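hey can u check if this looks right to u? its 511 residues, i copy pasted from the old doc so theres a chance i mangled smth
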Amino acid sequence: KTYDETNNSKFVTFDGAGNAEVRFYTPDYVETTDLEVVSPEGDVTGFRYKDLTRLWKKEGSKTYTYSTANTYPTFKNEEYAGPTLEGVLALADIKLDELDDYDVIRFDAYDGSIELTVKEIRATRYSFPNGKSKNNYTGTTEAQRKDGFEVPFIVNTTNGKTNLRDVFGMKDPQDQQKSFFIKHLSKITIKKDAAQDFDGMTPTLADGSKVKEADALNFDLALPEDVYEGFVFYTASTDGTEPADPTYADVLYNPSQNQTDDKDYEDPAFAQFYNSYEFTDADKTIIKVACFVPGCKDPKVTTLTYSRSDYNGLANNADRHGNYWYYKDGKIDKTHNGVDHNNAGWWRVENGKVNFKATGVYHNDAGWWYCKNGKVDFGYTGAGSNDAGNWYCKDGKVDFSVNGVVYAKSEGVWYYVKNNKIIPGPTVQPNAAGWWYIDKTGKVDFNHFGVEHNDAGWWRIENGKVNFNFNGIASNAAGSWYLQGGKVDFNKNGRVSYKGATYNIKGGKVV
């Protein structure tokens, strides 16, 4: 196993003949620079890896445990070691404590770059051993803060000279650092007074709007150029009092990126939110919101005030869970059941919410309607059921004036209907095209042959239809019968010849 010092790995891949190609790099006598620090004036100071490790030893060879949370979020505690950023800058004759708050320090690396204000870097930061993954962005608990301890901003050297990193602590256990610990750090640049004002956050519901219960508030976030993350926090009150200004410990909207593919971080236009504020039925809601953007000045706190709508009926838009609610004076009415409409159609509402699984016949003040997957199907003509029975629906509605044997075009079958209710057989019923055998489901059975009855008598059925021209002997489960004009003649007695055979008839039946 030949060790590759350049890529910090061993060669373990061989071809089919058992050979491996190995490149050996012969060191020259020019020591390369592993990290550059660029002053505000453009002066460059180069550091070799051994310079950094030497400084780390001079500072006490300390190893620190850092807690981190990424966007998804996964919470980790990991060990890092290396010289402090303050110490590295000092060797480049740059004093961190003499820089202005809104000077910016840029970190460039193989897998990206970040910018942080000096104020952010100088802030006291911590490692939180009790942090929690999947916190649902609901705000930080005291249990998560417990046992937190201060850690410095360092240049991590534990991964070797080809994988230097900037590593720093958290302001709060939900302070996300998705792309902050960038790998293969190569340059640190000081930029004077480069912090931007950020005012690129627009509420999707304008300040002063009237809102219904379960409406959701999001924000359109226009991040500055070359900035790929912003962290939006809010506080809210529903009792008319003004909430406190938001901090990292409050509820996190988490807009960091659209996580639909592995390259979403490349396009800030895809930044979106994952933790919308959902309104209650409060008469008044006050929300304070702030977006913390790396490399920008302290965020502007925006106060938004909303009042409850007097909306009645089914909502035109779904809440953030995909539910469509029925409202009374802006409040969800969970006692409501019916068939109601919005801009997308008419829907089956159960316990105040559209039931997208509902298929059958349902009622409102305008009638009884056939719903499929929760929606009235006005193109449907066929059978629909509810607790009261099976009904013939024409163009999506039960019409109680329909009687007879009628065609259900949506199913391609014929039903026997009385006052629009499908009547099960067995029976024989007429329409303009003839008399028909109705089976136990209420349908015409075009495959049926036999002798069947209705109130008018017993009839010869062929292919589901009465053959009024039939004269002779036909059978059913009860026996064989003499029929004249397609109907059993119960008055017939005596001998009858039919198809070369002679039958003895008594009361219309073969005996």
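Residues 426 and 503 are 28 Å apart (CA to CA).
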